[in-house]
Amino acid sequence: MGQRASTPRKGAKLRVIGAGMPRTGTASFSRALEILLDGPVYHGGTQITLGPERDVKTWLELFAHWPAKDDAAKQRNLELIRSQTDGFIAMTDNPCLVLVPELMTLYPDALVICTLRDIDSWEKSMEAVSNAATMWFLRFVLLPLPTMRYFVQFIDAMRPVWLYRYGETEPPTRVSYNRHVKWLKEIVPPERLVFLDVKDGWEPVRFAGPEGCIVP
């Protein structure tokens, strides 16, 4: 995770659903979880750019039929998500943050942790990232690169997802940020939901959860 993709570990079970928006310290949060829980973390931004091509292709298949229109599509989406998360102790970043209901269905004992950041700096950061990710020539620049060649296609696939979930696309604003926090409070039982501000560092992660500590 970070400068390289994580490798799943046989027998590892998802214990944390990282529901924080991109640019809220998700990479360093993932690293903290790797250390505290001693296992691989699926950081979406890393896996869809540096991981095996099957990862990003799986997400493209899923979001082509999301939200599920019937039980068969719902079951298929759950199977795809399970195939992505099997062997990881946590999942963070995009697209995890929009799949919280599905992840809670698959992992009913997992803790949902949402990382937070000063909203003004977050907005500026997301604007810069969005501008870079939507440059018209990016598709051609990335075409020769394994996995990365699908990056623009992934961004295109996520656009209607964010529009559906938050009512806007890129660059996302505080509207998306606030709606995301509100949505989490509506769908996640309070005993399973933790908010962590990145300015407090990662020590609070150690003591998150209903039992006061996520570390065994």
Automatic annotation (TrEMBL):
Pfam families per the UniProt record, alphabetical: Sulfotransfer_4
Alphabetized Gene3D superfamilies for the sequence: P-loop containing nucleotide triphosphate hydrolases (3.40.50.300)
InterPro entries registered for this protein in UniProt: P-loop_NTPase, Sulfotransfer_4
Domain of life: Eukaryota
Protein name as it appears in the record: Nad dependent epimerase dehydratase
